[in-house]
Design goal:
This protein has 113 residues and is α+β, with helices and mostly antiparallel strands. It contains 3 helices and 2 strands, in the order H-H-H-E-E. A two-stranded antiparallel sheet has the order 1-2.
Length: 113
Amino acid sequence: MCRTAVSRLRHLKGGVGNLQAKRYATSSAVASRPSSPGFFSWLTGERTSSLPSLDTPLEGVSLPPSLPDFVQPGKFKVTTLDNGIRIASETSVNAGASIGIYLDCGSIYETPV
């Protein structure tokens, strides 16, 4: 553990007697291109001119028709079978089904305390 700490300290200080070679970015290509603003600039509200705003419509993309203001609720019917079971059914355009079973539910079936 002590050797690990000493080697880390030497690495942080730059080696023993500064004998290690150091790298510096001297290429002009590295510094010529600005970096992207990133997440924090978006969070703080800084603007970038490289991307169009989300309100700008895209070329060649047509918008789908908007939904109507009111949609008629689906019609449902209640059917009572010969054994007394009531079935409520509703037509739907979706390919799905749901089943709910209620046995002796409601205040009529509660016992007084």
